[in-house]
Amino acid sequence: MNKAYVSQITSARIPTAYGEFRLCYYQNTLDHKEHLAFVAGNVAGAERVLVRIHSECFTGDVLGSRRCDCGEQLDRSLEWIARRGAGVLVYLRQEGRGIGLLQKLRAYNLQDQGYDTVDANLLLGHGADERDYSLAARILEDLGVRSVQLLTNNPAKISALTAEGIQVDSRLPLEATVNRDNLDYLRTKAQRMAHLLQFKPTQANAPFTKHDEPEPAN
Ligand SMILES: Nc1nc2c(ncn2[C@@H]2O[C@H](COP(=O)(O)OP(=O)(O)OP(=O)(O)O)[C@@H](O)[C@H]2O)c(=O)[nH]1
Ligand SMILES: [Zn+2]
């Protein structure tokens, strides 16, 4: 496959509840989607940059759905990056692990009939996870990031980025609240998608466990 290219078209200052970021808008040669980087501080030429590669989840990120952990992971990542004073959240428009919102909603209906998140995708004729991380790698390169501390529970994300030439120095876990609505989803991610989740099913109704903020890079 030909290597994809990205170019930053513009960026703008975005003050948030956590601190100030710049939203960088990218175009690319692979698809027509608006992939974004939300950047705090100076990351050009930096090593061990705190990075979150976040896949779009309209239901979790915007609507606060409790079916998944995305919204909380997004908030926590921004909080930690702002507190560190530098870092990047790459926002990839790969809704529904790449199958799009329409198919994700259909997958949710299948899950309400008893199928898990993997089988629901397969029944709809999709792969379990159709995401691609090449554009995330190109965006990190464009920003001049030299190596990353990656906020994720997903080992496939680490291997994909590494295969794309990004040096991943360490992984920082990003576990969210376990509740009645996301328990089966999180269990499936741990059991069928090899996500590194520490939760115990008996914690189903336990309040959010606050995880330690990552140590500064230096
Ligand atoms: N197809 C499908 N996509 C889902 C479902 N629940 C969440 N998603 C999508 O999954 C993506 C997030 O992926 P996750 O597997 O939750 O997490 P991850 O990004 O692989 O791993 P982390 O870095 O640990 O968050 C987003 O694009 C969501 O829209 C679901 O039940 N079915
Ligand atoms: Zn989600």
Automatic annotation (TrEMBL):
Q: Which HAMAP family match?
A: RibA (MF_00179)
Q: Which residues bind Zn(2+)?
A: C57, C68, C70
One GO biological process this protein is involved in is: riboflavin biosynthetic process
Instruction: Tell whether Zinc is among the UniProt keywords.
Output: yes
Q: Which InterPro entries match?
A: GTP_cyclohydro_II, RibA, RibA-like_sf
Keyword terms, alphabetized: GTP-binding, Hydrolase, Metal-binding, Nucleotide-binding, Riboflavin biosynthesis, Zinc
Please give the function described in this protein's UniProt entry.
Catalyzes the conversion of GTP to 2,5-diamino-6-ribosylamino-4(3H)-pyrimidinone 5'-phosphate (DARP), formate and pyrophosphate.
Report the pathway entry.
Cofactor biosynthesis; riboflavin biosynthesis; 5-amino-6-(D-ribitylamino)uracil from GTP: step 1/4
Q: Which family does it belong to?
A: In the N-terminal section; belongs to the DHBP synthase family.
Its Gene Ontology molecular function terms?
Answer: GTP binding; GTP cyclohydrolase II activity; zinc ion binding
Q: Which NCBIfam families match?
A: PRK00393.1 (NF001591), ribA (TIGR00505)
Catalytic center at which residues? D129, R131
Q: How is the cofactor bound?
A: Binds 1 zinc ion per subunit.
What reaction does this enzyme carry out catalytically? GTP + 4 H2O = 2,5-diamino-6-hydroxy-4-(5-phosphoribosylamino)-pyrimidine + formate + 2 phosphate + 3 H(+)
In the UniProt record, the gene name given for this protein reads ribA
Q: E.C. number, please?
A: 3.5.4.25
This protein is called what?
GTP cyclohydrolase-2
